[in-house]
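Morning. Coffee machine broken again, so started the prediction first thing and wrote up yesterday's gels while waiting. Chain of 303 residues, entered below exactly as on the submission form.
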Amino acid sequence: MKIAMIGLGRMGGNMSRRLLKAGHQVVGYNLSEEATRQLQAEAGLLPAFSLEEAVGQLEAPRAVWLMLPAGEVTESTIEALAGQLAAGDTIIDGGNANFRDSMRRAARLAERGIHFVDVGVSGGVWGLENGYGLMIGGEAAAVGRLEPVFKALAPAEDKGWGRVGPSGAGHYVKMVHNGIEYGLMQAYAEGFELMATKEEFALDVHQIAEMWRHGTVVRSWLLDLAARALESDAKLTDIAGYVEDSGEGRWTVFEAINQDVPAPVITLSLMQRFASRQPESFANKLIAALRNQFGGHAVKKAE
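Came back before lunch.
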């Protein structure tokens, strides 16, 4: 199958490599001409240096896959493509878009007869080797036509991918997936900190991570990655305790509130990320001041 990939960053580039290795033809376009040329030389990518050129190399019905950051760049690219594609063509958004945006985009493109498929993609930098988890939303017929592509990207033809519902459902499921990921990482982080700070036992947290990887009920791929991270530096001395969030954890918490669904673990894990970015917390200062006011408790002076 021939498909265009718009956005050849780390994820889009590796997905293109996996498709090319499976025998598919990939037309690639990226703002960086260097990235396009590199994939052309390395993996046999069919290069394009504009959206028009990418679309022009496809045969109807055309399929264009976007791997772009959520927000304005995705919005403007879809709008530009809508003017170049025709009824029966398909736009696939594999970025971490908000599911409400995906529903809106699908409805707008449907007015022109263009299909829209939203795909939540998981696998990170390991996807090239291990395959990608694909959570797919869209019309069944449009998804069905793209099955060869999904099967090539997934860990196996019959594992790790599937249509989960109509337009927006793919990005909704990926949003929840990422919210769960926040909670899992927070639980591992808290547990390992408890062990790392128990000085009287001098616990080797890398050894423990490796032990837990086999036979225990907490084994997981995230634990595998934790063991890998702790292998060379169990104290993580070169890493600052500053944790970003990509936005999907926030959306998950918003949805939990909107749907009256209690999600305390995911919510608190998001709050912990916010806390990690504060070199000095005004809230903690106020708590210290209040303890001093009502109980005369000692206050540590700022340096």
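The two ends are 64 Å apart (CA to CA). Going to sketch it on the whiteboard this afternoon.
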